[in-house]
Amino acid sequence: MLSSITPETPPGNLAALAEDHYFGANPPPKDLEKHVAQARAFIDYHSAAGRRLVLVTSGGTTVPLEKQTVRFIDNFSAGTRGATSAEYFLEAGYAVLFLHRQFSLLPFSRHYSHATDCFLDFLREGPDGSVVARDEDAAKMLHVLRKYRDARDRNMLLVLPFVSISDYLHELRSIARLMRPLGPRGLLYLAAAVSDFFVPPDRMSEHKIQSTNAVDAVKKVGAAAGARPGAAEEEETFDNFDSSPSIPRSKRLVIDLDPVPKFLKNLVEGWSPQGMIVSFKLETDPTILVHKARYSLDRYQHHLVIGNLLSTRKWEVVFVSPGNPDHWIRVPFRKGSTEDSIPDTVAANDEPLDPKSLPDGEP
Ligand code: PAZ
């Protein structure tokens, strides 16, 4: 497919070819069809009601190193921002489609699933052998429980999982396309931490990558005993790295990753052209954060980039939007976190954001 690219290929066609190539080469998650059916029913239901709907993506994508995956590279994200934001969007009247990394934090249950806030710590044994909330926690638990039940009973929250980068991209593309009829009533709030690099399937080991060559001996015996000719050699010569390693394969692991194509342009121009699109940018170096956020906005022409630094993401974020100065939201020490301000600010603006209208979060 990519061989049809020439120096004359227009940039728009390049994006389409890269998309065809990626989605053709990387298989969809096994539950994609089921998820698409669930998402379609959810979107149609809320669209018919004239309701605003937000797709919140949350958690980190994995990069599998093996097809039968034992080992993978992960992206940082607990899912706090996405799960918290989803609750705020529900509060603001949005239906929420929550596309999250499997087992990362979920709206409502997040209050009781952190390692230091194990849900069992909130319970005690009742007099009759029942289990009840501890007196000091009951009021908050009841509040969260009511909100959760309300979202569930009114079909306001659909939760769908992903694991790997290719799962995520397949799900995102399908859901974004389904959201097209919503027009500007559809908001895409992309808080997931998405891998920039991956191992393409044609260079991915089928089985667990071995750290010793003990298996080679077994395979040779198997080959000698009549296994398919060449099978042992195929295994021995498999290498994730393109060039020949100078240290034997049995002693090292070289991980050679390709860049994941940037699909934000495809999302903005093709998958959901009328939706409001908010992306997040995570960096660790404060000197490049705003520049990278502005670059992303200029390149993809969407509505808003929310930039944050790994070390300060709970206390400050920067809103970067077209034609507006950078706008920092800072939360005073020990007075909540940025999670409390971002979704309200975004939800208050169906149209591209004007930071002048945002609440001033300066300490
Ligand atoms: O999930 P979390 O609350 O631990 O972290 C949130 C975040 C830092 C992953 C998110 O705010 C973010 O910046 N997402 C985009 C990451 C990226 O640049 O791919």
TrEMBL record:
Presence of keyword Ligase: yes
Stretches the record annotates as Disordered: 337-360
Source superkingdom: Eukaryota
Swiss-Prot/TrEMBL keywords: Ligase
Coiled-coil blocks: none
One GO BP: coenzyme A biosynthetic process
MF GO annotations: ligase activity
Transmembrane portions of the chain: none
InterPro entries named in the record: CoaB-like_sf (IPR035929)
Protein name: Phosphopantothenate-cysteine ligase-like protein
